[in-house]
Design goal:
- This protein is mainly alpha-helical.
- The chain has one domain.
- It has 5 helices and no strands.
Length: about 190
């Protein structure tokens, strides 16, 4: 890979995309499964934690690259596998180590910048809303579809009729029995 700054920039870009995805998923889970209102401060704290967790992953990758470099030093035989490094790989492993360290530093720096965190939260919120909007659009299209417009209508009709008989009619019959009992509330 070209210059170190290019590799670090690419690493930060990938990690930022991962953070945006994690924050988006967090927003969706909080809103859909837990029914929680959107809380900018709570989501911002989660975004900071996410950036710091990604930085910790980069630290772990840096430590592994350093360990692999030390292990490879002085080995001149042919490798047994892709990750069986040799002395000729130590320069590349040193570069990787440095790049991982720089990406981790940059991610921690981003986590400490309120405006960057706010941008991340806003981008994740927009993405989450886009997911909700797309889901609503699909549901509205399906629920408003007529028999003429549905290409699978004839094929799925039997399954729908069976579900009607087994589930819906049984449920209606059960409700009717409960209502017909003396003292049943309407």
């Amino acid at each position: 890979m070209g210059k170190r700054s290019d590799a670090v920039g690419e690493g930060v870009s990938i990690a930022s995309a991962a953070a945006r995805l994690a924050v988006r998923n967090h927003i969706l889970v909080q809103a859909i499964s837990r029914g929680a209102d959107f809380d900018t401060a709570e989501v911002g704290a989660f975004a900071q934690e996410t950036l710091r967790a990604l930085a910790a992953e980069q630290d772990a990758a840096a430590a592994l690259a350093k360990k692999q470099r030390k292990s490879a030093w002085g080995k001149f035989s042919d490798p047994d596998s892709t990750h069986d490094y040799r002395d000729r790989d130590t320069r590349n492993l040193r570069k990787r180590h440095t790049q991982y360290v720089k990406v981790a530093e940059r991610l921690r720096d981003l986590a400490d910048q309120p405006d960057v965190v706010a941008e991340l939260v806003e981008a994740a919120r927009d993405a989450a809303w886009g997911d909700v909007e797309d889901n609503l659009q699909r549901r509205l299209q399906v629920e408003s579809m007529t028999a003429d417009a549905d290409p699978d209508y004839a094929q799925m009709r039997e399954a729908r009729m069976q579900a009607l008989r087994l589930v819906d009619l049984s449920r209606l019959a059960s409700q009717a029995r409960r209502r017909s009992k003396p003292g049943a509330a309407d």
